[in-house]
């Protein structure tokens, strides 16, 4: 029996592709489908640094921005499935299948999941000139003035765009949406009073909130954040049940060998236990997911559930991007 078990194990090892048996033996690239300096880029660079220490190979970050993250995603979906070209993307992976009617890749079946990375809280903030001091007061103004209120976002498919859709759905009010080409100009115009409101990640807004250059109405988590302890949750502030986070996950092209996926997932889990990564995540107002979430199966289940969650919201809003 023991000899037979050894024989089966040896045959299984021989059956693996040679590349999987020696993986990794050269640098790995993680594609970020957004410009350098943004929150997804920051998260990716921290993960890449920690994974490179575990893998014994360089893990390089490549920014391929444009088209709401779909250009970078396409780059990975069409790459050789050998574990050397990966994608780190946010919640946009759950909304792209509904937002975009025509894509050069399969937005659902074109990837292997490796594991989730983090769930970044969102914040509802306003211009210093906005005539409200609390979320409850802001909701009253929004319901009174409707499309006279300008709601900024960082572009179609951006986390701020999605949070804005959910915010309007929760209130049952349509505001005037003002898309920008990135978060920085949106926040700049918010501070200057050109636009009124923005719902964006703590990785983008914590500095402005702490510096009192914007009004902070709420965080979109069930509990208050240690990094922003004075900011109430949306439920506390007058919008019960309004919860949304921007989760990030790591992907490989479809067809990547399972042993390679498992090695990458193992490395990701190790990276998420790295003390330096945990400390930097805390500075950004977030934290790594649990080890159980940083697995291929848990990641895929969460991703598929989120696709189903966002589909009716996007369809009801008619928010499509051709």
From TrEMBL:
Keywords: Receptor, Signal
Residues making up the signal peptide according to the UniProt record: 1-20
The organism's place on the tree of life at top rank: Bacteria
One Pfam short name: TctC
Keyword Signal applies: yes
SUPFAM superfamilies: Periplasmic binding protein-like II (SSF53850)
Coiled-coil intervals: none
Lipid metabolism found in the keyword field: no
Entry similarity comment: Belongs to the UPF0065 (bug) family.
Name of the protein in question: Tripartite-type tricarboxylate transporter receptor subunit TctC
């Amino acid at each position: 029996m023991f000899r037979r078990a050894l024989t089966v194990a040896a045959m299984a090892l021989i059956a693996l592709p040679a590349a999987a048996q020696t993986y990794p033996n050269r640098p790995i690239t993680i594609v970020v489908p957004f410009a350098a300096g943004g929150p997804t880029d920051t998260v990716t660079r921290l993960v890449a640094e920690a994974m490179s220490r575990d893998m014994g190979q360089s893990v390089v970050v490549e920014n391929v921005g444009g088209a709401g993250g779909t250009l970078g995603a396409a780059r990975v979906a069409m790459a050789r499935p050998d574990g050397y070209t990966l994608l780190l993307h946010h919640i946009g992976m759950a909304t792209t299948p509904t937002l975009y009617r025509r894509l050069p890749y399969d937005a659902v079946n074109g990837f292997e999941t490796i594991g989730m990375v983090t769930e970044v809280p969102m914040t509802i903030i306003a211009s210093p000139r906005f005539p409200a001091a609390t979320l409850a007061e802001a909701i009253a103004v929004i319901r009174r003035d409707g499309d006279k209120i300008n709601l900024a976002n960082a572009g179609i498919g951006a986390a701020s765009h999605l949070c804005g859709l959910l915010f309007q759905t929760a209130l049952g009010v349509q505001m005037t949406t003002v898309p920008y080409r990135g978060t920085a100009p949106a926040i700049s115009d918010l501070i200057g009073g050109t636009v009124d409101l923005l719902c964006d990640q703590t990785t983008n807004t914590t500095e402005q909130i702490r510096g009192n250059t914007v009004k902070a109405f709420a965080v979109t988590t069930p509990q208050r954040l240690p990094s922003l302890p004075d900011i109430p949750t949306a439920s506390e502030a007058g919008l019960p049940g309004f919860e949304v986070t921007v989760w990030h996950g790591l992907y490989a092209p479809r067809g990547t060998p399972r042993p390679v996926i498992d090695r990458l997932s193992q490395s990701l889990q190790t990276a998420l236990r790295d003390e330096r990564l945990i400390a930097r995540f805390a500075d950004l107002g977030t934290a790594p997911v649990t080890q159980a979430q940083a697995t291929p199966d848990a990641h895929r289940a969460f991703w598929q559930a989120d696709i189903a969650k966002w589909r009716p919201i996007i369809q009801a809003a008619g928010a499509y991007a051709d």
